Amino acid sequence: MVLDDIIVTARKRAESTFEIPETINTLQREVIERARIAGLADIGQMVTNVNLSTRTDGFPNVSVRGVGSFGNTQGVGFYLDDVQIFSDASARFGDLERIEVLKGPQGTLYGGSNIGGAVRFVTVKPDPTDLYGNATLTAGEQGLVDVEASLNAPLGGNGWALRLFGMASSNDGYLYNPNSVRANGLSNDNPRDIGAVDQESVRVALAGSLTEKLSLLASVRWNALEGPNDPWSVELDDSFEFPAGIDLSTNPRQDRETIAATLELRYEADAFEVTSVTSHTDTDSDRESDLDNSQEFILDLFRPQEFKVLSQELRFTSTGDGPLEWLAGLYYLDFEDDLDSSLIFLGGSSLFDGVIPDPATEQDVVDVVPFEDRLRERTQRAAFVTASYRTGDLEFGAGARVDRWEVEMTNRQSGLSGRQSETEFLPRLSATWYLDDRGSNVYATAARGFEPGGFNLGNFAGSNELFGFEPEEATSYEIGFKGRTADGRATLTAAAFLIQYDRRQFELQAQDPVTGDFVEGIVNAGDSSQYGIEADLAWQATDNLRLSIGGGYVDAEWDSGTVLADGTDLSGLTPPYVQDFTAIAAADYDREFTPGLSFFARAQISYNGAFEVDLGNTVENPSFTVASLRVGVGSDRWQVSAGVQNLFDEEYYTDATVFPNFNPLVPLDSIIIGTLGQPRLFTATLKVMF
User: Fold this and answer.
1) I want to staple 205 with a disulfide (CB 3.0 to 4.6 A). Which of 163, 345, 615, 681 is the partner?
2) How many CB atoms are located within 10 Å of the residue 379 CB?
3) Residue in 336, 331, 299 with CA at minimum distance from that of residue 315
4) Do residues 624 and 589 make contact, with C-beta atoms less than 8 angstroms apart?
5) 3-state SS record for 156-191
């Protein structure tokens, strides 16, 4: 049994991963189901040199090969099919054909906010050939109940079809509020399950031919999430204890609802194809945070936020069989982020004065201070072109994107605003040498990506414009090998890379030493360089057993002379959130033991290296190893399986950072906060196909 080619659309045309001169990791539908990938952290544990998880406020934390950042700067793009997701990238999408992880700057084809790479969720498309569907029920520990279903329905005999997907999931989570005794001797009565989550999602897709050459694919999706917001585990120093008990005055929650629509029109001309992709996304989100991270009523934050995103892409793609392949297009983005948040000082604020609050008044609102009352708008206009030409065993590729971006932000409290714009030139060059007729090759690629600049809400004394930060840029050089061996039963990919990262954006949280106010903002910390290697091997060891193993290493450091505004010298230090080593090994086993009845199993172990969590390298998040196992039996009509995530109940943080301390009962200027990873979890699943 040979390993099949994996077909992807990473370069906006269907092709084998062996034809693409860069590293792409693909998670196929079978792996998504067997590994029970339900969140971003699950993806992060399956791809080398990728640090990926969900922040406690529901936004992604992600860096690829040390590029990207955690917090309000993203750096890695998330896509549902051909549409970039800005507001709910951590949502559960489901009914996926595959997940593609593109490593390295993707500026030429994808533009801004893809400086480190891109993560693409590719959905199953409507099929006009047959009526079929499936339904899946998963139940497990932590009160987990998860239901999802999909239905594919042909609409007459003219090539039209409808596909429906829906899911509903709820769980109590693994974090709890112990409601510990407060300074005045009383206790709170919050629900124990501070990490409880409820999520629902529906997606409808319609596809068919309008004329002989013109086809349509339209989809609408709705997603709603009600869950915890910023229930951080708190550490007082770097001797981590990984507490699951989160002592807060009230259980902070978030409510998020997204409605999005996409229209794709495709016209097939004689020698090329024209594709138009139009999308609109509207997300409303309300988030509450307990900033003092304690059971006392001191300081809270309320963040109502609305995102509106309109995008339009028009591209032309060659369809001939000749040695020249090309693609050209235009792109427009209008992104609006409206936030009106407030700091809420409660009666317990008297603790700042050393006075134990009166139980009758400690929950009273003493003051409401506007914190982030702003409107941020970003537009991008771009033109791009790529082409490749093959002659004999050699193929040369080139591409470029001209991207004009503009960001404007207004602080509605102060009346100050800021506006900046710039035109980026994003080239890409590649060369590939094919070694045999099975696609084995050696390649070299150079590419550039960027993340747009923006503004913070404050300004320097005497300035009438908001304090801005510049765009960050990364230029990557990669050489690699993609090969087949063992008569096609094994594939090996390997790459080495060097990345020059300029004006790296970093999010800071601090307490103003003069006013005591909470300050959050983004700065250009400086330039860094990183290099590394990675390799992945897949081997069909027997007709029933498939093995895969991968590993990666990244070495990153701030360039000499990198000094922050406060005088901190970062020269030679490691930038935050860069994992040094990552490794993954998995085994998949399938065997038909009676006609029509099969046994299957998947085992996986993932090692995630340590990484620094602050600019000064004073705190390091330790390495961790997570193992999982799933076994089941099934036929072509049903499947029953059981599994365990985090088999050895490893304690770990998916992220951590140094944060200001607002609790006067703890005599520290700062604390360490972290997002606790999933402990051991047993689940059972029943899937019915019809």
Assistant:
1) 163
2) 17
3) 331
4) no
5) CCCCCEEEEEEEEEEECCCCECCCCECCCCCECCCC
Residue 489 reports pLDDT greater than 90: yes
Radius of gyration from C-alpha coordinates of the chain: 26
Do 114 and 105 touch, CB atoms closer than 8 A?
yes
**CB-based contact 83:549 (threshold 8 Å):** no
Burial bucket for residue 463 (CB in 10 Å: 0-12, 13-18, 19+): exposed
Q: Which two tokens stand for residue 605?
A: 């172990």
Question: Which amino acid appears at position 506 of this protein?
Answer: F
Nearest-angstrom CA–CA distance, 205 and 278:
14
Torsion of CA 355, 359, 365, 367, to 10 degrees: -10
Token digits for 327? 């693609």
Best CA proximity match to 68, nearest among 109, 24, 28, 114: 114
pLDDT at site 460? 63
pLDDT at 312: 98
CA-based nearest residue to 407, from 454, 473, 470, 374: 454
| Closest CA relative to residue 210, chosen from 160, 257, 173 | 160
Chain segment 255-308, per-residue pLDDT in tens? 999 999 999 999 999 999 999 999 999 999 999 999 999 999 999 999 999 999
Instruction: Report which of residues 321 and 254 the model is more confident about.
Output: 254
pTM given for the model: 0.95
Asked if 246 and 176 count as a contact pair (C-beta separation under 8 A), the reply is yes
